[in-house]
Each structure stands twice: as C-alpha cells, then as structure tokens.
Amino acid sequence: MFTVGEVAERINAVVEGDPNLQLLGFAPAAAAAEGYLTFAENETYLEKADQSKASAILLDGKSKSSTGKTVLRVKNARIAFAHVMQMFFPESKPEPGIHPTSVVESGAEVDPQAHIGAFCHIEKGARIGNGTVIDAFCQVGENVQIGEDCRIFPRVTFYSGVKIGNRVRIHSGTVIGSDGFGYVLDQGVHVKVPQVGTVIVHDDVEIGANVTIDRGAMDVTEIGRGTKIDNLVMIAHNVKIGENCILVSQVGIAGSTQLGNYVVLAGQVGLAGHLKLGNQVTVGAKAGVMNNIPDGEMWLGTPAMPHKEAKRVMVSWLGLPEGLRRIRQLEHELEELKKSLSQK
C-alpha cells in the first residue's frame, strides 16, 4: 500500500488532490474499487476511469477528470503505468541457497546470495552471480557464466561456455548455445561442421519462452544490451543483434546476419543469412527479408521492400480481381469485333 504522494515521487507526477490518500492497489477502470488507482492514457480511458469506483487516476497530458478524483498527472501515462505496476506488483524472489535435489559439480561457483531451485544441474567451471535466481530443472553447462540479479525460469538449458550478463531474464523452455545448423555435402552424405563458438548475452536482455539461440560455428552469437526477445524466436549461429532491439514472436534469423541498434522485427519476420540491417530499422509482420536494409528504413512484404513501394504493390494486388474482370470483358469485346468484321 502506498500514498498518492509516494507514487507521485516514483513516477515524477504532479498531484491534483490529496497526496496523503492511501492507495490499496492498482487496477484497470472496470475492476478498480474504492481506494484503488487506475490510469487513463487517452479520452476513452479517461471516460471509463471517471465512471469507475477508483479513488485516483494516473492521467496523461492535459486531460481533465470530471469527477473530482485525485489525479496524478504525468507526461506519458503508458511509461508511468509500467513503473507503477512494478511498485504494486513486485516480483517475488526466493531465498538464497541451493535446493538439496540439485547437483552442483566440483569446481562450479555459486554465489551465496544466489538461489538454485530443485533438480538443477550446475556443471564444473560454471559461475552463478550474486542475487541470481535459477528455478527448477535448469541445466547450466560447463564453464557457463551467469551474472548478477538474473532470473532464469524453469527448464532453461545453457550449453557449455555460454556467457550471460547482469539482470538478464530468460523464460521457460529456452535453449542457449545449442549447435548451429552447419553441414557440408560430401559424397551424398551431410557431414556435420563442429560448432565450437559460443553465445554472449549482454546486460538487461529479456528472452521469452521456447527461444533457441545457437552458438557460433567458430565465432560468437551475440545479443546486445537491453534487447527484448519474444517467445518462439530462432536465432542462428554467428548472428549479431545490437542494443535495445525488439524481436516479436516467431521471428527467424539465419546465420551470420547482423542487426544494428533499436531494430524492430514484427511477428513471423524471416531474415536470410549474411545480411546487414542498420540502426532503427523496422520490419513488418511476416516479411521475408533477402536484402540489406539501411539505417532508419521500414520494410514490408514478402519479398520485403521499402514500405512505400510495398504499399503500392499491396494496392495493386487489391486491384487485381477488377483488372482481371476488365481484361476478360475486353477479350470478349475483341472476339465479338472479330466476328463482326469477318462477316462483312
């Protein structure tokens, strides 16, 4: 429970009303009870917030509440919303220690303030940092390094040699450091190319559930600081992803492709191998990218192309049925004209 003033201090809000009002919780307008804080980032939300039982509103911009509720006015309600959620719904953290069912091999180093859940296996040479939580059934391979204050959810697998930075979150079922998909055809047989590189995940990265990140063939697969990866993403060997990128669900990136900083790949985007995408590139959902993309551009479609060109193509597609109907009509009229001329 927090006062309005305490919340306002956390999010740099201007209070209009009682700063000593006790807030029992934070909820959307439809579910907010008396004593609760709700939020409104536009006029539609504000109307619902005014009609709710909430005692206070986290309000965006210059909008005005018409009900006399206490207001916490902020520049951006969506950003403030994220910080307030962390206040009212802090993530629980288990006590430090190693569960008796887990195996920590000789030569592994687990910080006394780390937590190792049930049935984990920590191989020799692995290092687990201060405040890191590794939930049940995780496999931490030989010489893996995991930094401080990380949260590793159940059933995550780290192959040998992987390096994880600080404050990294990795969700259930993800596999980091599996072999890259590398083969050569020799006399009709696919011969495996040993994958002897590694994976480096830098600070403040979040990786969703059931993601696979392959180790480099001889180099490094690298995920830049602050990048966020959704569920079911596949990142192949030797890929380099810059800082603060967003990869939405079911993205697939082929080997040795490089992404700059602040790249956004929407759902189901596929990138061919050995490409370069510049800084602040955006690729629309289901696009198939087979070319390099310069800084700052938005590409759409399959095959992907600059968004203005892609939109013209899409408009043309929409006109195809009418165009085909018109062509058939003209063909019919031409046949009738030929018949008429042949009879003269």
Compile the SSE list and pairings.
Layout: E1 2-3, H1 4-11, E2 14-16, E3 22-23, E4 25-26, E5 36-40, H2 43-51, E6 56-60, E7 70-74, H3 77-88, E8 97-98, E9 103-104, E10 109-110, E11 115-116, E12 121-122, E13 127-128, E14 133-134, E15 139-140, E16 145-146, E17 151-152, E18 157-158, E19 163-164, E20 169-170, E21 175-178, E22 183-186, E23 189-192, E24 198-201, E25 206-207, E26 212-214, E27 220-223, E28 228-229, E29 234-235, E30 240-241, E31 246-247, E32 252-253, E33 258-259, E34 264-265, E35 270-271, E36 276-277, E37 282-283, E38 288-289, E39 298-300, E40 305-306, H4 307-342
Parallel strand pairs: 4-5, 5-6, 6-7, 8-11, 9-12, 10-13, 11-14, 12-15, 13-16, 14-17, 15-18, 16-19, 17-20, 18-21, 19-24, 20-25, 21-26, 24-27, 25-28, 26-29, 27-30, 28-31, 29-32, 30-33, 31-34, 32-35, 33-36, 34-37, 35-38, 37-39
Antiparallel strand pairs: 1-3, 2-7, 22-23, 39-40
